[in-house]
Amino acid sequence: MAVEELTGLVVATADKDPLVGLGAVAQIRAEETERSEEVLVRRARNNGATWVQIATALGVSKQAVHRKYRGRRVFGDRS
């Protein structure tokens, strides 16, 4: 997420209309959570974690992790 977009969303959280603020919070949560997960998956792979270990940590199946990250260049990928 670009700094300008994030800044706009943070400002929107203080909007007079709480529904506008809630919408901004939901968008920040969704986008930043996905970005953080991708970074941590890459770090885990670089540290030697298997896809099974990553899937277990995320509480999903190995197949779900493969579907989500298939085709992405995750460093340390040994399949």
Give a verbal description of the structure.
By secondary structure, the protein is an all-alpha fold. The protein has one domain. The chain is about 70% helix and about 0% strand. It has four helices and no strands. The chain has helices spanning about 5-10, 20-45, 50-60, 60-70. α3 (about 50-60) packs across α4 (about 60-70). The chain is elongated and about 45 Å long. The two termini are about 30 Å apart. The model has no long low-confidence stretch (mean pLDDT about 90). This is AsnC family protein. It comes from Nonomuraea diastatica.
Task: Tell me the span between the first and last alpha carbons.
Answer: 28 Å
Number of E-type strands: 0
| Rg value | 16 Å
Question: Low-confidence runs (pLDDT<50, min 5 residues)?
Answer: none
Helix % is 55-70%
Order of helices and strands: HHHH
Shape: elongated
Major sheet: size, sense and barrel closure? none
Structural class: mainly alpha
Percent range for β-strand residues? under 5%
Number of domains: 1
Query: Total helix count?
Result: 4
> Mean of the pLDDT scores?
88
Organism: Nonomuraea diastatica
Protein name: AsnC family protein
Give short descriptive properties of this protein.
4 helices, mainly alpha
In short:
The chain is mostly helical and 79 residues long. It is 70% helix and 0% strand.
SSE map:
Layout: H1 3-12, H2 18-46, H3 51-58, H4 62-69
Helix pairs in contact: 1-2, 3-4
